Amino acid sequence: MTIIVQPSEDDLAALVAPYLALQADNTSLAFAIGIASPEPDFSAIYTFGAVQRQDGGPLTLDADTPFVLASVSKTFAATAYAWYLTTQGPEDATLGDYPELEIGPQFADISLTSLVNYASGLPQDNGSADDEPTNMPQPYTVPGMLGFLNYTSMAPFPKPAYRYSNLGFGLMGAVLPAYAGTDDAYEQIVIDLIFSPLGLSAQFFDEVRLDTLPQGYYFNGQSYDCVAPPGWPQFPAYNGAGGIVASPNDMQTWLLFNMGLMQEQPLNSLLPVLQTVSTPVKTGWGDHLGLGWFLGSNDGAPFATVWKDGDLPGFSSYIAFLPSAAPGSATSPAGVFVLSNTEGLNDASGIEICSSLANDVLYLMQGMTPPEDKSGYRRSKRPDIPAAT
Fold it and tell me: Which residues form the Beta-lactamase-related domain (predicted)?
């Protein structure tokens, strides 16, 4: 049985201190860390550093400060899909079942489930992308995306393999209303199905007031002095892939829910579907794939995790928890999330900062010392793992 200990605020401050020390005088770098466990019973949020407005004006850093979740948003899209998958189906629906999308016939056989478990065959696009218009319209809307998919010659790969496709989650946002049989847009489905029942203040990016959003930064491995404009050219078409903005309080609730610590919630019944293996396909580093979530094993690592990371200009995120023995009925022993207002993709060791911090915290929560070599820490952008072909 895993013995869990609660890290102190000083323990967490020591982890973030080296990153805070690298910021320039005119920047305001922040980290929000949430931790939780059912035994011993604790749930806590800590914030470190400071934030400022887009114009450099003052902004409060606390548990209600909004952060762009980026690809952690995919876990929300997968949860919304899982609700309709389990409550009404059909389980084997494909894009071709929804001719109202009016997209190319080469996409007809892609299953809806594969859109959210990274096995759709759509091109890997968490680096350079060839699955969007050469001349990207602004804004990039769902009709615009579907129109591109109606004329493009791009086709999914026929061989099942792991490919990280933001387009796949954008397509889930486009098809989910038809699958659910509603006239509501994807965003409203998520609000009604997830945000409201869980009491979240989360919003989608295009609804966020700029005077509440912290200035974000790029990190070049040595400093945070490069300002990052917020947003993503793919919004709102890719809201299913990365469009949610949420506070540390929101993320703590999301962590508790996914750890099985909110069993009175109707959505709790979805956890077995979300957190169990959904395809024989594995990642290049050996993780199994749930719906939206990566299911890490303890092969070559001291412990397994269920995890998801995210990054967009100026923001990064990571959420992870120890696997439950029976998702939906048994709780996860421990979990953590990290939010930051830096993209942070290249720290001094080449590891994403939020990944380093979150996994370090999970080591501490299990009474272990984090390793010096963090190259084995799980994250979706791994330079040592080539894209599947």
Answer: 58-346
